[in-house]
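#lab-general

N.A. 3:47 PM
ok so I finally got the sequence cleaned up, no stray characters, all 456 residues accounted for. can someone with queue access submit it? mine expired

B.Y. 3:52 PM
send it over

N.A. 3:53 PM
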Amino acid sequence: TLIFMSEQQALLLEQQRIHQLRNYQASMEAAGLSVPFPGHRPLSRAQSSPASASSFPISVPAPDPPIKPRFTTGLVYDSLMQKHQCMCGNTNSHPEHAGRIQSIWSRLQETGLRAQCECIRGRKATLEELQTVHSEAHVLLYGTNPLRQKLDCKFTQINTMSCFGFSSGVRIVHSSSAARLAVGSVVELVFKVATEELKNGFAVVRPPGHHAEESTPMGFCYFNSVAIAAKLLQQRLNISKILIVDWDVHHGNGTQQAFYDDPNVLYVSIHRYDDGNFFPGSGAPDEVGSGPGVGFNVNVAFTGGLDPPMGDAEYLAAFRSVVMPIANEFAPDIVLVSCGFDAVEGHPPPLGGYTLSSKCFGYLTRQLMTLAGGRVVLALEGGHDLTAICDASEACVAALLGQELDPLPKAVLEQRPNPNAVHSLEKVLETHSEFILSDMTQMCTLRDPYFMALTT
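B.Y. 4:20 PM
back already:
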């Protein structure tokens, strides 16, 4: 009996020693240090021993699971945001529906991209956080439970024009929780990237936010998630220079309003404008900021309708000749992207009408990653064709992870932007040449092969 007990104790001590060594080795490897695993005595015993496997089963510790790289791309998503729906109740045909984020999240899982990212937990934004951009009345009306039914009904009757949300007052069931969760999720992700806990990130959130103004909901938007995150970065982390790039096909009027006089936030929007005839009608190239913020509001306002529609060549030209030169001169500390995908082919004219490929957005993301030490956060805005937004999200997350992207066709890379796009870009360059660009605008224009081809 004494021999049997001593054998048991020896085996248990041996197992504990090996398990501790494995844990130590894993912790050292996670810190980037290579630690050799020392040799150890075999656990097996002679079959005649009372401690053999046949008479005394031994539970060998399972190997520790592989450790994800700690400094990687972050994702944030919460299924509670699916509860947000239009008061009309028609969830099948409504453009802004729960299937948008659900489909994107499923695609990221199916492709294995989600497993390569760090999934963080979102949260509801506080009422105080919402008031960094929005008025107290707006926050109370749209950020709390709809207990003021009479006020809500009155507001809806006055302001609601269309269940498409392209007006200022569409009330949505469960919107307060979903909208506050969208804001809080973006804020959480942005702060983890700003403090370098994560490398970069993508927020799969709804409802969108860039149309929401100080006291007015608009275009499916209730609270401006990206603008609130930028304000909180300024207040809590004292971030001095923030770049916001908005490539949703609609101009982000709410974001422009929030920072119109702020020289520490450079807002650059690429959108369909058509001389103010496309929703929301704002975003003219001569809207450049006010007071100390003059020159720090840049609207790449494409005009000319859909004859022909803008595509990859036009957006690549915009990045090459306007967005990246201005952004490089500004030298931001972090880049936030109002990441709408409604410029992708597949969106009918009322919702977009442009013909960008989904993979083009991966290349635009890759260019922005050259700024701010790679600290880039994308927050979903518009985009309603499920295939288009899933493909584009996949391309963007792959770019954030540093993966090789599907190449753009050579014909696209060599294609001249259409004359309407050239005219629009030249208008932007002319307008901003007297502000933050100085000689860079002229040099960029002259060196850009697209413009050289059109002027020779």
